[in-house]
Here is the input.
Amino acid sequence: MDFIDRHAVTHGVYGWWFDNRLPLVPRDGCIKRDGKHLLYIGIAPPKDRPVRRDGPTPVKSRLWRNHLRGTVRTSTLRLSLAALLEQELDLAFWRDKRNRVRMDRHHEDKLSEWIATHAAISVVQHDEPWSLEETLIRTGPPLPLNLSVSWHPFKPTLSDLRRALGRN
Here is the structure.
């Protein structure tokens, strides 16, 4: 897992780069660097979310607690990756009482290990990252794993895969 100056960035936009081991995802037009494609961006903190004093920075907290060691319930990126890697990693899902997708810790750990091996993160400081996010998704390079405000033709396929999780 590569980090680019992760300790210096407190608020900003982060990009997720993946190697070619992520099945189904189209990469046409995506930015490629060091053998990985930029497939998703996110922000921290979200708009109108207060930042705790003396706590971890919003970027560090979001990346570690949600994306790297979180759950499919707390990270839309993890949920998308789990849907794409369900068969390859032999992941099992269920739905809780609120109909949210869940995996047991063992399967979450398998997903975390896959991410550590096949992904890289880049971050950029921006004090109001929400002002950039929509513009980047709508008018920037293709980002096939972003669903919110996305125009990407892969969006319906990814949405269907996510919706199907835990329904068997």
